[in-house]
Design a protein that fits this description.
The structure is a single chain. By secondary structure, this protein is of the alpha/beta class. Helices cover 45% and strands 16% of the residues. β9 and β10 form a beta hairpin. It starts with a helix and ends with a helix.
Length: 345
């Protein structure tokens, strides 16, 4: 049986914002009603993500959707003694009901890459899933904040944007590619090398959400540690290859589902705080951007009542980071264009 203290620590880990809200004179009961939807809730990321969102005191209604298996996940999660009401929906016929009235929609739906599957196979399956889900979002909850987890994020976010544009519902401030796992990894790996407590570490990660498009800015990491250049290079590579590290450790039988669920829950929590008017909520995310010449780019974003309040600049980069930025641009642009082309087929 889970001890109350353990439940409390889990809740605070997922939503440190609840204590911040309390300090500002709110109780969880007086925070606004918020509906969060998880699309792909029965999957490897979706199940732990659904549990973590159930632990978040800012959520009042938790809607879980998948093509199959959702009633069981919803029943299981609904027994957790926290504030939100849980409802499960399965099959395309129930998608509209799942989405109606949503404030935040999190999309971990899709398939992980399986043995023998090419990247193009994976792209075509997941891109098709994202396209159909976003078509439904534009119809049933066009003003919701959309948190895209489905890979490849560098392409699925542009796909979503094109679908919303066609439906006449596109608002660049409400569409986010969730790159938080890159930040979580960069913080963890940096803290280990710098020998500092990870809870106080901050590392911005810019670019995109795959391979060399992931660029951690260790020169801006806090607390500052004077790490050797070769250590920075190794940390950068490990952050970029974090997903592969997990796939190999799971011997090809899975991917980063638990850490991704944690990262997804952190970013959704930040979105909820922003919607609720908590000031100075800043996270990295892959959004429509003018920070570089690319149409979409991950950088620090200030979150607020309308989603993106401000896309922040990159700050001072080291020579190594400047080179990394130039190196990633062609690959990131190709992924963005691939998504746009798919959406318009």
């Amino acid at each position: 049986m889970m001890k109350p203290s353990m439940l409390r620590s889990l809740q605070s880990a997922v939503s440190r914002g609840s204590s911040q809200l309390a300090r500002r004179g709110y109780s969880s009961e007086s925070t606004p009603e918020r509906k969060v939807v998880v699309l792909g809730a029965a999957g490897g990321i979706g199940q732990p993500l659904s549990l973590l969102m159930k632990l978040n005191p800012l959520v009042t209604s938790l809607s879980l959707y998948d093509i199959a298996g959702t009633p069981g996940v919803a029943a299981d999660v609904s027994h957790v003694n926290t504030r939100s009401e849980v409802a499960g929906y399965q099959g395309e016929g129930e998608l509209g009901k799942a989405l109606e009235g949503a404030d935040v929609v999190i999309i971990p739906a899709g398939v992980p890459r399986k043995p023998g599957m090419t990247r193009d196979d994976l792209f075509n399956i997941n891109a098709g899933i994202v396209k159909s889900l976003c078509t439904a979002i534009s119809k049933y909850c066009p003003t919701a904040l959309v948190n895209m987890i489905s890979n490849p994020v560098n392409s699925t976010v542009p796909i979503a944007a094109e679908v919303f544009k066609k439906a006449g519902t596109y608002d660049e401030k409400r569409l986010f590619g969730v790159t938080t796992l890159d930040v979580v990894r960069a913080k963890t790996f940096y803290a280990g090398k710098a020998n500092v407590p990870v809870a106080g570490v901050n590392v911005p990660v810019i670019g995109g959400h795959a391979g060399i498009t992931i660029l951690p800015l260790f020169s801006q990491a806090t607390p500052k540690a004077n790490l050797d250049h070769d250590v920075i290079v190794a940390l950068t590579k490990r952050t970029q290859d974090g997903g592969t590290e997990v796939v190999e450790a799971k011997a090809g039988k899975g991917s980063a589902t638990l850490s991704m669920a944690y990262a997804g829950a952190l970013f959704a929590d930040a979105c909820l705080k922003g919607l609720n008017g908590v000031p100075d909520v800043v996270e990295c995310s892959f959004v429509q951007s003018n920070v570089t010449e690319l149409p979409f780019f991950a950088s620090k974003v200030r979150l607020g009542k309308n989603g993106v309040e401000e896309v922040l600049g990159l700050g001072a980069l080291s020579d190594y980071e400047k080179q990394g930025l130039e190196n990633l641009k062609p690959e990131l642009l190709a992924s963005i264009e691939k998504g746009i082309k798919f959406a318009n087929q």
